[in-house]
Amino acid sequence: MDQAPGSPQEPQDTHGLPGCYRHPDRETGIRCTRCERPICTDCMVSASVGFQCPDCVRTGSGTGHAPTASMPRTLAGGAVASDSRLVTKILIAVNAAVFVVGLALGDDFVNRLTLIAGAFDPDLGEPVGVASEGEWYRLLTSVFLHAEIWHIFFNMLLLWWLGGPLEEALGRVRFLVLYLVSGVAGSALTYLIAAPNQGSLGASGAIYGLFGAMIVLMRRMRYDLRPIVALLAINLVITFVAPGIAWEAHVGGLVAGALVAYGMVHAPGGRWRTPVQFGAAALVLLAAVVVIAVRTAALT
């Protein structure tokens, strides 16, 4: 059962100091001035008198009045949300919905949204693709497409595993920007290198972006990198060994995700934090756009 605020049964470490109510492994001598729960330096929110915990700031401690303290923030400066996996859940739902629609409507639906630079479609009797027909939307729609059940299963499993911690650390908006920019960057590198008539689809570019971001985040928090690096290494081996995998999307997403995450978690504090964070994401996106423009000029 959950302990009531101020309950004497609090996590203790070996030195006698209580552990933070959100991070039990962190000893702390700081307590919320409203509910008296122990809070670590990452959780405490400055108030007019002392510090408050994120829960009390968010709810106003049940007084019905607006809280006097500033809103709690994530590691990257995003707003702390009650459901730290909301965007992750929505992304999984969108991918699943598109997959089901693809099964219902058949190959024609999938082919119209798959990333392809240029090819002649015998069914339509006309050319299709980004360069051939200016179908730029394929660079993004392909990120939400999956042709096989195993493909979407493993991608969504990784999205759930990586997305939750990243969304909690970055905040909803920053996490969504990371995911989309990584996906587009993966599509851009595929568009640049792959054969013009070679189709590509899947969320793998965005997922590898989350891999890169997780490594940056864990290094920033000084966590043990060996588990995540080992998992990434296994996936990269599969990428380059298994046939039919667009390694370009994986590499492009991985690099983009790491760059965007670095800009977000290492941005200076204060009023420049948000401009620097979204500026870093914009620069990565701009690089992807330049790659797309260069490839399009070469093909046309």
From TrEMBL:
Residue spans crossing the bilayer: 86-105, 143-163, 175-194, 200-218, 225-245, 251-269, 276-298
Domain of life: Bacteria
UniProt record, GO biological process: proteolysis
Record's keyword annotation contains DNA repair: no
Membrane-topology descriptor: Multi-pass membrane protein
Entries under InterPro entries matching the protein: Peptidase_S54_rhomboid_dom (IPR022764), Rhomboid-like_sf (IPR035952), Rhomboid_protease_S54 (IPR050925)
Segments of this protein annotated with the region Disordered: 1-21
GO MF entries: serine-type endopeptidase activity
Domain Peptidase S54 rhomboid stretches: 134-265
UniProt xrefs under Pfam families: Rhomboid (PF01694)
Subcellular location: Membrane
GO annotations of cellular component type: membrane
Keywords: Hydrolase, Membrane, Protease, Transmembrane, Transmembrane helix
PANTHER family: PRESENILIN-ASSOCIATED RHOMBOID-LIKE PROTEIN, MITOCHONDRIAL, RHOMBOID PROTEASE
Similarity comment: family membership: Belongs to the peptidase S54 family.
Name of the molecule in the record: Rhomboid family intramembrane serine protease
